[in-house]
Amino acid sequence: MAGGKCAKCGSPLPEGRVEFRAVCAKCGSYVHVCRACVHYDPGAHHECRASVTAEYAADKDRFNFCEEFRPATAPAAGSPKKTRADIEKLFGPSS
Fold first, then answer.
1. Could you give the 3-state DSSP secondary structure of residue 89?
2. Domain range spanning residue 12?
């Protein structure tokens, strides 16, 4: 498995399996998190494109025990809340 990138700082992760409670050597944040996974998609159901067997994780930045985790090679885009805030800056709040 190719090494991925930390979802928080973008640092490269070591090659191989990412343990559930592994942390980034640079920033100390968890790396086995939804936002660091290739399946993470803010537009998908539960923000995940993995099969229906993927474990639901409410906090996308907290480590989880999902067996379908695969490290993404680039950090995920902004969170849905940040995206909404960016849109509201451009167009004003939704009514």
1. helix
2. 1-95
**Which residues, other chains included, contact 35 with Cβ-Cβ below 8 Å and sequence gap of 6+?**
7, 60, 61, 75, 76, 79
What is the DSSP annotation of 32-78? SSGGGBTTB-TTSGGGB-S-TTSPP-S-TTS----TT--B-SS----
Q: What SS3 state is found at 5? A: strand
Residue whose entry in the numeric block shows the structure tokens 């790396």: 31
30: helix, coil or strand? strand
What token pair was written down for 11? 């640092």
pLDDT (tens digit per residue) in 52-62: 777 788 899 89
Residue-wise pLDDT for 11-21, tens only, equals 888 787 888 88
Number of domains composing the chain: 1
